[in-house]
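Contributing new complexes? Match this layout with flavin mononucleotide.
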Amino acid sequence: MQSLLRISKSVMTSSPKCVSPISAAPHVPIPKNGVDYRNKIVLAPMVRSGELPSRLLALHYGADLAWGPETIDKAMIGTTRRVNPRTSCIEWTRLSSNGQKAHERVGLQKESVIYRVDPQREKGKLIYQIGTSDPELAVQAAKLVAGDVSGIDVNAGCPKPFSTSGGMGAALLRTPDKLAGILEALVEQVGKVWEIGISVKIRLLETPEMTEALVRRLCKTGITGLTIHCRTTPMRPRERAVREQLRMIGEVCKEHGVACLMNGDVKDRDQGVALAKEYGVDGGMIATAAEANSSVFRTKAQGGLAPWREVVTEYLNLAMSVENKAGNTKFLLSQLMPSKDPLYQPVQMSKSYQQCCEVLGMSAEMIARAKEVDEILGIDAQGPKQQQQQQSSKKNKNKRALEAGTNAMPNATINNKKQKPQVQPELASRSEFDSLGQLALVV
Ligand SMILES: Cc1cc2nc3c(=O)[nH]c(=O)nc-3n(C[C@H](O)[C@H](O)[C@H](O)COP(=O)(O)O)c2cc1C
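Output block (do not edit by hand):
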């Protein structure tokens, strides 16, 4: 009796949460190798903007967890897992033929990194997000990464036709049995085996009743967490998030012991904590604000938003430390730098890590490191070799299209909310980061 009292006293004193109404609710058990989403402010899954260096940047500035970019099941299946001996990162790679015809492919295949993880710096923090519409494929793909991540999340929120037409993303909101089947298969065949959590990210449905029915159904699948993006499928990213249904969703999750994260227009950690408290949910997920400045994860007391130069220096160091693709790095720089800064254009015009560091006036040490990374990645002062080839083939294609009288100009390659049209398209090419499975979507 004495020891029981001691235990309950120590629990109550060591964790004030234990006496709050939240703690009175049941919690689904968090598997040994998984993470609890409660009391967390996390980095959202973002194609392109959620590659490894961006996640490390967010973790550096205090994100509690980081979601990787949605990676389609079929893109992962067939990849080879290897450890990069220089960076110690784990990479899942596949040979790609860069669009060549079968008879041209021999000897010309290039190894593409489909997914990359830093097992040290992301330990206990990384959630892998999968794009899928099929339980078997989902399980097959998830098994490939399950030993290297702390959770698997299913994307049931992407509204883009390429995703929904394949029955993935937001289409799953209309097929709740299928979505539940995917989650149940992942819980049984991956979550229980690797002892990690399975979660889901959804959007609002048209009415609270519809959303409630869906959330109840999903909470019964054995998931440990659910993220609600507070927009409906037709809503555009610029439209303000709506929070009317949030309290109800939080309550349903609590009833089932499932952690609930809210997403949509969360600007920083302080606001996320305040909103979670106001609406009775367990934490917040930040996308766009973190894409623009990852120091949103710091509290005001910790210094609040860091100046862009500091963030960019940190980012470049991280990108080079993991040998990030140059195109992706440049894209992220376009997000992290103010477009009106005089260095913005020169950085976007730089052709290598070295040039980029020089333009930004980085230290001699960083410039030397940049040179090494350029060599490893096969980038010369003229820019990434592959990028050049792709650009010249794009130019030819464009010329042919013009001759044929069509309108197929090369797309402006920065094509999101923070579009910076003054940059010449080819200088901000996405070709390098539009790798297999990490499709250019903004959901
Ligand atoms: C560049 C970009 C890429 C995104 N990629 C994904 C993704 O891979 N998976 C996903 O579930 N949501 C994705 N989203 C949606 C975000 O995770 C988030 O739900 C949405 O942006 C709303 O959050 P916010 O208001 O903080 O931006 C993406 C958003 C952006 C801006």
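Reviewers usually confirm one structural detail per submission. For this one: Residues 44-49, 69-70, 129, 155, 157-158, 201, 229, 237, 263-266, 286-289, 291, 416, 441-443 surround flavin mononucleotide (CB under 6 Å).
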